[in-house]
Fold each of these.
Amino acid sequence: MVKKFLIGSMKDRYYIGMMMLFGSLFVSAFVYLDMHPYQEPEIQINDIQENTNISQTEITLGSATDVKNDASLGSNLVSYWELEEASGTRVDSHGSTDLTSTGVTSVTGVQGNGADFGTAGNTYWLQASVGYGDPLDITGDTTICFWMYHKDADVNSSNDDIINRYGSSGDVQYRTLMSDNGFYFFNHDGTTQRTPRFSINPSSNTWYHYCFVYDASASQVNLYLNASSIGAQTAGSSLRSSNKPLVIGRWPDGTGNNLNGYLDEIGIWDKALSGTDISNLYNSGSGIPYDAGGGSEPINYGSPKIIWFQ
């Protein structure tokens, strides 16, 4: 049983003091970890006091603190929009696909600012012109994550297009649509269109975290709501290459199905994120920023561990 666990830091060195009680056996240890950029943690253990022999004990520290510098979340990330701008173009913080804005304003989000798409009847949206061979023209494993706050009194009766590369004819790739007490992930493999539906029951005026995870090898798509899997549904064996623009917040081939709410922290990966990745993004409802440290290169601290023998 751990009686006390204290941690402090000075620059890149982290100090940990522990006093542990195993039955009637008392063990104390003082530990520090050197964590310099671009290096694996150096672990030093001092002042071990022992009363008798105790088997190996291990403690694992840390989880993702931001998207960019996390070894897994920063890998295969194609585009990430923090949506911090008050108006106008929303910059792609990770890639090169900036979003032009039509009427979209700003609101307090989960991390900093988010994007306000107005109320029912408004025609506000974000869009990027992307085509064949573009980094966002992903035909294999894909993950799309975002925070959404819906303002409709009855969220489940709304028809809101969220993030799409879709059209009424041809070049259909995917479409995320909230409608009829569920969330749809329309997808096309070049031969067949499939419309898997996930039954959800979100409340209005509440932030929720959504992740669609498409696994090409399994021909399945899963929806995670607040880091909990809703369950996998059948999808195609690939996503069709598309020349359609990326449209966020409305029906992509015209007007209608406008989002009545807010979005924040949108990310697209060309891989299937794991449940652990998604849990780290959700972070118990607080989310994590794209870049907490402002570094220019990803830093992989690995999984620092403290191991000692008595």
Note: The chain has one helix and 22 strands.
Amino acid sequence: MDEIDELRAALDRLHAAMDDLVIRGVRSAGSQEIARLSALRDEFRAAGAEHVAEKLSTLVEAVRAGEREGAAALMRAVTTFRLFDRMLTLEYARAALAPPPEAEIGEEEEATEAEEEDEE
């Protein structure tokens, strides 16, 4: 679960960065926002979320160049990261609701039997 928790934290930071860009506008983004997006891109790339990193790369390039397509790149990046967020939420829920592996079940039964023998 640690990896999922780290991705959730990164998604929260990305959400805040995207909200800032949506509110202020892509053309108002400066070097601080570019650095923040670049760091998040690298973090998602390292985590194996290449599709999110690719959209962030496109956004960073559009912001740096001051292109008119920056707003469209922002919306594509927002859509991609929200979809990734939903998929990660489903994965987290599946892991949380899954029955424990057989080895853990056997260990729990043995521990219960040992406790019962100690009580007698």
Note: The chain has a mean pLDDT of 84.
